[in-house]
Amino acid sequence: MPRFVVQEHHARRLHWDLRLEMDGVLKSWAVPKGIPEKKGLKRLAIQTEDHDLSYIDFEGTIPEGMYGAGEVKIWDSGEYELMERNDKIKFLAKGRRMNGEYVLLRTRVGWLLMKVS
Hints:
Blueprint: E1 3-10, E2 14-22, E3 25-31, E4 42-51, E5 60-62, E6 70-85, E7 88-95, E8 99-107, E9 110-115
Antiparallel strand pairs: 1-2, 1-6, 2-3, 3-4, 4-9, 5-6, 6-7, 7-8, 8-9
């Protein structure tokens, strides 16, 4: 089963990085206002560059002067089941905090992350 991780990232601005193991990499989105934990909540999700699979366990400090400088902590991790993948990515997250059905919906201006159930 593919894995996911959510990293709480204290960079210039606090945000959460959602990373889904897909196509041999971690597909990644920055979620400025946090992962929705209640059904119906929507959050802006900004797609970022893919990361190497080895990054799934990363916690620590990215040094000043480097891209993404700041503290990174794992907020949640687990496995997920991919349910649909087109202009939306629907998945069933099986983590401690991120648990249930979620949808990443591509819009004209980016992506929205929603908790469906």
